[in-house]
TrEMBL record, chain A:
<feature type="transmembrane region" description="Helical">
    <location>
        <begin position="189"/>
        <end position="211"/>
    </location>
</feature>
<feature type="transmembrane region" description="Helical">
    <location>
        <begin position="411"/>
        <end position="441"/>
    </location>
</feature>
<feature type="transmembrane region" description="Helical">
    <location>
        <begin position="462"/>
        <end position="487"/>
    </location>
</feature>
<feature type="transmembrane region" description="Helical">
    <location>
        <begin position="352"/>
        <end position="375"/>
    </location>
</feature>
<keyword id="KW-0472">Membrane</keyword>
<feature type="transmembrane region" description="Helical">
    <location>
        <begin position="253"/>
        <end position="277"/>
    </location>
</feature>
<feature type="domain" description="DUF112">
    <location>
        <begin position="17"/>
        <end position="436"/>
    </location>
</feature>
<dbReference type="InterPro" id="IPR002823">
    <property type="entry name" value="DUF112_TM"/>
</dbReference>
<feature type="transmembrane region" description="Helical">
    <location>
        <begin position="387"/>
        <end position="405"/>
    </location>
</feature>
From TrEMBL, chain B:
<dbReference type="Pfam" id="PF03401">
    <property type="entry name" value="TctC"/>
</dbReference>
<comment type="similarity">
    <text>Belongs to the UPF0065 (bug) family.</text>
</comment>
<dbReference type="InterPro" id="IPR005064">
    <property type="entry name" value="BUG"/>
</dbReference>
<protein>
    <submittedName>
        <fullName>Tripartite tricarboxylate transporter substrate binding protein</fullName>
    </submittedName>
</protein>
<feature type="signal peptide">
    <location>
        <begin position="1"/>
        <end position="21"/>
    </location>
</feature>
<keyword id="KW-0732">Signal</keyword>
<dbReference type="InterPro" id="IPR042100">
    <property type="entry name" value="Bug_dom1"/>
</dbReference>
Length: 503, 319
């Protein structure tokens, strides 16, 4: 309960001003395509040089929480996921915006983000010592099985058929092998200097999601100007709150999965949203509605990606190991003030530690209030005529891809992937499984090779990968996931053939 | 019309003439860091360049641009082939990383592609084991490695980085072979593997290991440098423990420009930049972050690069 004692510090005038500024600025940065939470926080570090340690961290913490939530804005309105965390939000969120329900989607996403985020920070406050052990429990073999678990959901994620889903997953896995391999030192498929560092995930996200959409808009031409103006429906905040709490299943699955996955160093943030989306779909009674603008999809994805923020800091604050790229940047922000995360932080600088954590808690609330305020206005983006919209999205895409590492190479990668995806979509493939393959490929591969190297030096690969409680548990979950998918597919086929026969 | 062109040409020549060494720099300077934002190199680069806007330094701010990927190869490839050699594009170097990479091939740079300006930091590699490990000195480690060839698992940040070089040197000095496990995700992932007990030991940066030891998570058994570190006065060097390991694996960080940069610009930078690093505000921030400083002038760096090139050529020849 020590944290309550330090709540006062958050509300001192300068601190609160920074918190407010960090939150609003973070939302704007997060909504800008190409600026991931990691980059937004890194951009703010130099500003903290002049501030006290506590104040600097308040700014960074507020920016971190709100950039993650801000990513939902471009995901919903423009179908450009700001970061891997927001991929799942595009699936239903953007469809809702196209139906004129952008305000509702945004309100739900901010509310779900706040609920998930607050739960995540509370976990950080109360369970940090327990959670630290859990974060360490995942070695290479466990991360490998976890990535395989992710691969098993590829087929069922947002695709018309399992086979097409798996095929696009395979394309993603292949794309992931491009570049220098850090562990074996091999060069793979580098036929252009732009590919030396592999495919940048942010550039790929922008290309795969936004570009096909832009091309479709251009392809329609001027023919139906005016015919397609979307009527943006107003949506009251109260109704959104009510809807959120009637979707408790999506909310709680999203929050729990986000918190658990957020803890695992190196994996967390990228796949939390997608896994939560998939699990919510499996447990939902309205499975068929997912992907057609169903609010459960938005709630689960956004609750998960904000719930992951708190737990993802556990390894950093307790063991001084940054578990995610953003945590690594925050580590820099701490070190510059001479504060070492770990026991030193909580023993000798409790004011810094707890004020920082409290500011993340208050930041979630501020983020939610501000987000709800602008949701109605932002949703009007859908009224912009398609020809104008296509130009805006295209320029934002180029800007976003370039800004990741100030490199034209990333813009070429984005354009090529985008054009390729435009044609793939014509054949019923979709971008989400492809991206999941791209994210999971390196995790599965690096951990398998690392695990094999350790296993070869110690007790053999079989024993290393196939024994031990956590390994067996994860293998069981992998098998269950496969069996479930196969069963659903077979059942689905039987139904459709019956229906077709009747018709 | 011809007159107009001639006039414009004259005006242009006048402009370029004016932008000689006296005026340099007349606009903000960019410095490329070939690792991601928030990493140790990026973090230190931001600190050591924060006073460059002062009158007594360059008088113009330095902006950091990150071009991460493939262990630094992406950024250095870009710097060697595409960066403008006009003095407005600097880069941070990491030795032995870029030299080892150029020896192993597959990149478009070598020490001849760059001109060093000054060195700001030196982060030695150290040997760490978990806090509850039975090993208490390098002697214990070597004894175990001798009894169980190839079974001692040791983590490090990647291939052909300082950590890997240190592991190869320990192997060579002790006549053993450890199982070196490179991690994806840099020194932090390698440290996590040690703390979680996934590997029996690890080679890591002194600054990160110092923090982890303070937190009670690891023991530091040896420093791969010529002298003990001021941060760790109680930890002996490898040499003191009978292992012939020099400072080849020490991670030197500094500033360089592309080959072809005008000599007067290099001169000006070489004179000003070490002074800028010596600023007390810089050293205070660096010390607070646990980052050891080691300022070297351009001539000292040229000599250091040449030495590294030679040692690494020999060390990596057998691989």
């Amino acid at each position: 309960m020590e944290f309550i004692y330090y709540f006062g510090d958050v509300f001192s005038p300068l601190s609160f001003l920074l918190l407010l500024g960090g939150t609003v600025g973070g939302l704007i940065l997060g909504a800008t395509p190409g600026l991931s939470p990691t980059m937004a926080v890194a951009l703010l570090i130099p500003f903290t040089f002049q501030l006290e340690a506590v104040q600097g961290l308040i700014l960074l913490g507020a920016a971190y929480t709100s950039t993650v939530a801000g990513g939902a804005v471009s995901a919903i309105l423009l179908k450009i996921p700001g970061a891997p965390a927001n991929i799942a939000t595009t699936l239903d969120g953007h469809t809702m915006a196209k139906q004129g329900q952008g305000a509702r989607a945004l309100q739900l996403s901010f509310l779900a983000s706040a609920v998930g985020g607050i739960f995540g920070v509370l976990l950080l406050i109360f369970l940090t010592p327990v959670l630290a052990k859990w974060a360490l429990a995942f070695g290479p073999s466990h991360l490998f099985w976890l990535a395989i678990l992710g691969v098993t959901v590829i087929g069922t994620l947002d695709s018309s058929s399992v086979v097409k889903g798996l095929l696009s997953g395979c394309i993603g896995l292949w794309l992931a092998t491009i570049g220098f391999d850090d562990i074996m030192g091999a060069q793979r498929f580098i036929f252009h200097p732009a590919l030396g560092g592999g495919i940048n995930i942010i550039a790929a996200l922008i290309g795969l999601f936004a570009i096909p959409q832009v091309l479709t808009m251009f392809a329609k031409g001027r023919r139906n100007v005016g015919a397609e103006v979307i009527e943006v429906q107003r949506h009251s905040i109260l109704a959104a709150v009510r809807e959120l709490f009637s979707r408790t299943r999506a909310l709680s699955i999203g929050t729990l999965i986000g918190s658990i996955i957020g803890l695992i160093p190196g994996v967390g943030g990228q796949i939390a949203g997608l896994v939560a989306y998939d699990q919510t779909k499996k447990f939902s009674s309205e499975k068929d509605k997912f992907g057609t603008g169903h609010s459960e999809g938005v709630i689960a994805a956004e609750a998960a990606n904000n719930a992951m923020v708190g737990p993802s800091l556990v390894p950093l604050l307790t063991l001084s190991i940054p578990g995610s790229p953003t945590a690594a940047v925050l580590l820099g922000g701490l070190l510059i003030h001479g504060i070492f995360p770990g026991s030193d932080l909580f023993d000798n600088h409790p004011d810094v530690a707890w004020t920082f954590i409290n500011s993340m808690l208050i930041g979630q609330v501020l983020m939610c209030i501000f987000g709800l305020y602008v949701a109605g206005l932002a949703a009007r983006v859908a009224q912009v005529p398609q020809s104008v919209m296509a130009a805006i999205v295209l320029s934002l895409s180029v800007f976003g891809a370039y800004s990741v590492q100030s490199s034209m190479g990333d813009v070429y990668v984005m354009a090529c992937l985008g054009i390729g995806m435009f044609f793939l979509e014509r054949f019923g493939f979709s971008a989400a499984p492809l991206v999941l393959g791209l994210i999971l490929g390196p995790i599965a591969e690096a951990n398998f090779i690392q695990g094999s190297m350790i296993a070869d030096a110690t007790d053999g690969r079989g024993a290393y990968f196939l024994t031990g409680g956590l390994n067996l548990f994860l293998i069981a979950v992998v098998l269950a996931s496969i069996v479930y998918s196969v069963w659903m597919e077979l059942r689905h086929r039987r139904y459709t053939t019956k229906e077709e026969a009747q018709a | 019309m011809k007159r107009l062109i001639a006039g414009a040409a004259l005006a242009l020549m006048g402009l370029t003439g004016a932008a000689g060494a006296d005026e340099y720099p007349e606009r903000p300077i960019m410095m490329m860091v070939s690792y991601g934002a928030g990493g140790a190199t990026d973090f230190q680069a931001r600190i050591v360049t924060m006073t460059s806007g002062n009158e007594d330094a360059l008088g113009m701010p330095i902006a950091i641009i990150n071009k991460p990927g493939a262990g630094g190869r992406v950024g250095w490839n870009w710097f060697a082939t595409q960066a403008d050699a006009d003095g407005y594009t600097l880069a941070a170097y990491n030795v032995p990383h870029f030299i080892a990479q150029s020896i192993k091939g597959g990149v478009q740079y070598s020490t001849d592609s760059f001109e060093p300006i000054a060195n700001w930091g030196a982060d030695p590699a150290v040997f760490v084991v978990g806090a509850d490990s039975p090993f208490n000195s390098m002697e214990d480690v070597v004894a175990y490695a001798k009894e169980n060839p190839g079974k001692l698992t040791v983590s490090g940040a990647g291939l052909f980085v300082g950590h890997h070089i240190a592991a190869l040197q320990i192997d060579q000095a002790s006549g053993t072979k450890m199982a070196y496990i490179p991690t994806k995700g840099g020194g932090a992932a390698a440290m996590k593997a040690v703390i979680a007990g996934e590997v029996m030991g690890g080679i890591n940066n002194l600054s990160d290991a110092f923090r982890a030891q303070e937190a009670g998570n690891v023991k530091i058994l040896g420093v791969a440098d010529l002298e003990r570190s001021a941060f760790l006065p109680d930890v002996p060097t490898m040499k003191e423990q009978g292992l012939d390991v020099d400072n080849s694996s020490v991670n030197f960080r500094g500033v360089m420009v592309p080959k072809g940069t005008p000599p007067e610009v290099i001169e000006k930078l070489a004179a000003t930049v070490p002074e800028m690093f010596a600023n007390t505000r810089v050293s205070k921030k660096m010390e607070a972050g646990g980052s050891p400083m080691h300022i070297m002038t351009r001539d000292e760096v040229i000599e250091m690069w040449a030495q590294r090139q030679q040692t690494l050529n020999e060390l990596l020849a057998g691989l």
